[in-house]
Amino acid sequence: MTGGHRRPEEGVTRRGLLGLAGLGAASSAGVFGMWRAASREAPLAVSGTPTSTPAPVPSATPSPFADAGERLGGTVPFIAGKAMLGSYLGLDGMTYPDAVKLRREQIGRDQRITHVFYAWEDKLPARIEGKPKKSVPMVSWRGPEYTEILGGDADELIAAAARRIRDLDQPTLLRWGWEMNGDWYRWGGARNDQDTDGYVKCFRKLRKIFDDEGADNVSWVWSPNWNSSPKADWNRIDAYYPGDDHVDWVGVSGYNLHRESPETLFDPIYAKYSPRKPIMITEVGSKDYGGTTKADWIRQLSAYVEQRPAIGGVVWFDTDTHPSYPEHWRLDSLPDAAAAYREMAGNPRFSG
Question: Which pTM was predicted?
Answer without folding.
Answer: 0.84
